[in-house]
Amino acid sequence: MKETILQFGTGAFLRGFVADFVQTLNEKGLYDGKIAVVQPTNSKRGQLINSSGGEHNLFLRGIVDGEKVVTHRKIQSVTRCIDPYDNYESYLSLAKNPDLRFIVSNTTEAGIVFDPKCSYHDRPALSFPGKLTQFLYQRYLTHLPGFVILACELIPANGKTLKSCVKKYASLWELGDDFYDWLEEENTFCNTLVDRIVSGYPEDAAELFLQIGYDDKLLNTAEPYHLWVIEGNFESELPLKKAGLNVIWCDDVTPYSTMKVRVLNGSHTSLVFPSLLCGIETVRESLEDEQLKKYLGRCLFDCILPLIDRDEAKQFAQDVLARFSNPYIKHRWQAISLNSLSKFRQRVLPSIEDYLIRNGELPKPLVFALSSLIYYYKNNIVQDNPSLASFVMISDLEQILSDTAMWGIDLSEMKNLVEKGIRLIEEEGIRKAIDWAMS
Fold first, then answer.
1. What is the pTM of this model?
2. Rounded Cα distance, 414 and 352, in Å
């Protein structure tokens, strides 16, 4: 098959997301194309991809319609990996391939950055947008059409941000007005939203090797659930929906991002500290605890979901509960608790504000999540911005809630409710306090 997709990123996520989707397209006879991978950092991970000819095994494991489901997929949609650090000319030569149409990327949240120290003459530029600009300029010189670029990094406006970085390099490197126009006219940088937990190389790899009959160093695992929201509509070229995949082509990913942040991420952030204070280590264990499951239900269905005006929101919330209960994924609360101050501001505070506007009162379950956070930060070593974590530990409640730099707004009107939640945790214990939060 032709190489029609260029992928920046060698990690488990893209192998369990985009590569899986392209495999489905190929299996159903809907698409005649494969993926060439570019190694965006100076590592040797690409050697594993090349040693297997791009082939690897993927196990999708989770809860579907209330039942445990395990599906084995042999991924053969990847052809090879090109390392621009070892062979820069081979990397640039990909731009001369007239079959290439799509570019996808997942270079982590820190990948889409403009580094002015990068030079066009670097072989290659250190930053991912710098490498992409070098590649796009080479494409421009061949007089071939541009690309549909699908950024999958978990940042707001990922496609727009990537395009901005590329244009800055075009200007910095003085690549010319014609190239600048070509970027605008021949290329589409799509904002996207991706959602699938790809858990990577599993702890029970030896058992899975017995099933497939050999050791696979690229063995990958993920949940069955997936969602890809893409601004634009290239279904005629990449028929993802026709293949039965949960893909949404749209004019604006923002409403879907809001839904994901408030429902999925907001649920995590609301439940993390009540769970840790109960001595529970993983998300699945919290869903097996009747009290915590009920508390999550109050946060989700009473306080968050009614504020989201989307037809898909209720089903998305049900999917979230099934995903949280996945017995194959050990999603630890300690990992989720990292940088919780900024997470609470982004994921939970907007729901509290909207609830107050709509109902004229504060949503007690969500406010209790803040009580739990502050109590935990005052009594435990946490991983967060050191100055902010220290401020919460040593300051009184009034100072904490009124700090607009930390929260974006003054939370002083929550003081009585937050204070009562903290006092109940201290005097009667976390379980009694959770009961009060649900009353």
1. 0.92
2. 10
